[in-house]
Amino acid sequence: MMPAFEYEALDLGGRSKKGVLSAESQRQARQELRRMKLTPLRLSAPRSEKKSGAFGAEKPRVKPGQLVMMTRQLSALIGAGTPLEEALSAVAVQSESGPARTRMIAVRERVMEGWRFADALGEDEKSFPALYRAVIAAGETSGDLGGVLDRLASMLEKNRAIKNKAVASMIYPLALMVIAGGVVTALMVFVVPKIIDQFNSFNAELPLLTKIVVGLSNWTVSYGLFALLLIAVLAAAFWRAMKQPGFKLAVDRFMLKVPVLGRLSRAVDGARFARTLATLFSGGAPLLDSLVGAQRTISNSYIRSRLDRTVTMVGEGASLAAAIKRADVLPPMLTHMIAAGERAGALSELLDKAALQLEEEFDTASTVALRLLEPAIIVAMGGAVLVIVLSILMPILRINTLAVG
């Protein structure tokens, strides 16, 4: 494969042009530019290309945000009639120096050698997942690569938005819990012992509530660090156990039964499944292949395992709606929309509508859950502080009563 060179040159009108071209040497690259009636100003190999091969194992993967932007740019260029090689070159030039530019240059070289676009992307499976390549392969087969890339970019944006929404929705409650735990721990470790020492100097009998708080305070001072270490060890063990398919399957199945979390999990996976299936199917992929691709995007392993039977039933000739209903793991609304889509011959359109409704359901459910969780954490923190304050005030009132008597 000939090396790629980035260039900056002037055309006959004095306008600056940037791009990428392939040549065996810089000298040949300059000759090619002059043949194109361009005056070279700068000609160099990409810095990331100089260090190692185009798809070196040590190179970082393309970030999800960059992948969405590159896909959207390609869809716009190809939809406007730009040849694939020129579109890849333009996206490479517009990308920031780093993995994204390196990948696009390498993919362009493969395409110029006669490779299919999807096969060229397959040389870097970490940056371009199997599902991404499958959608592009379907677009190449159908002859509507620009439209498929546009739908693929929309799917990536929606899936990324759902993931970011799920992560962002947990940040504030977790931060609130950490702060509340830190405040209560500080009171138990630094404040309560000093105040109780003052009460002990009077040799007065402490109330039961105060004795309980003092006991918890002493335990926290003596064993709090060991408790934190134990929690860290258990968390690490749980994280490792989640890599075991059997354990993860059991945990995911249990999570679906948790009232609020189960509903949110079904909505998120249902929306992702519906949007991916619509993108693949509308891009020209067979229904069975589209179903397998959409199944891969589901994060809950129990839902994914139940859909194995769905794939088998569809392969045997059953309707998609009946097969999904038999699995009984996705939201019922999705099953009804699929059935309506099959009857009307508009499966892709109704899948998109189902995905939108499930995303709205997720937004609504997560918002309600957060509005209930936040005051619950505040009330719990206030209750803990109230107990500590009462445990301090009760001995003071008792001492005052004895002094008056």
UniProtKB/TrEMBL annotation:
The record's keywords, sorted A to Z, are: Calcium, Cell inner membrane, Cell membrane, Membrane, Metal-binding, Protein transport, Transmembrane, Transmembrane helix, Transport
Task: Quote the subcellular location field of this record.
Answer: Cell inner membrane
Q: What is its main location?
A: membrane
**Keyword Amino-acid biosynthesis tagged:** no
Q: How does it sit in the membrane?
A: Multi-pass membrane protein
| Heme in keyword set | no
Quote the Gene3D superfamilies the UniProt record gives. Answer: Type II secretion system (T2SS), domain F
Chain ranges of the Type II secretion system protein GspF domain:
71-193, 273-395
Q: Which residues cross the membrane?
A: 170-196, 216-239, 376-397
Family, similarity comment: Belongs to the GSP F family.
- According to its UniProt entry, what is the function of this protein? Component of the type II secretion system inner membrane complex required for the energy-dependent secretion of extracellular factors such as proteases and toxins from the periplasm.
What name appears for this protein in its UniProt entry? General secretion pathway protein F
Query: What species was this sequence derived from?
Result: Hyphococcus aureus
